Amino acid sequence: MNASRTARAQWRQLSPDVRRAIWGTVGVLNARSPRRFNRVLQVPSFFWAWFTSEGAFPFLVLHAIRVTGSIRRGRSGVEGAITSALDVAIAGGLVSFIAEGRQADEQFAAALAPYLSASDLARRPHAVRAGQWFPLLYGGRRRRVRARNLVFSPPGPGRPLHLDVYRPIGEWDGGERRPAIVQVHGGAWLLGDKREQAIPLLNHMAANGWVGFNVNYSLSPRARAPQHLIDVKRAISWIREHADEYGIDPDFICITGGSAGGHLCALAALTENDPQFQPGFEDSDTSISAAIPFYGVYDMVDLDHHMIGGFLELLVEPVVFGSKYSVDPTPFNSYSPISHVHADSPPMMIIHGSRDALVPVESARPFAAKMASVSTNASVYVELYGAQHAFDIFPSPRTVRTIEYCQQFLDGVHRGVIK
Question: C or N terminus of the chain, fewer CB within 10 Å?
Answer without folding.
Answer: N
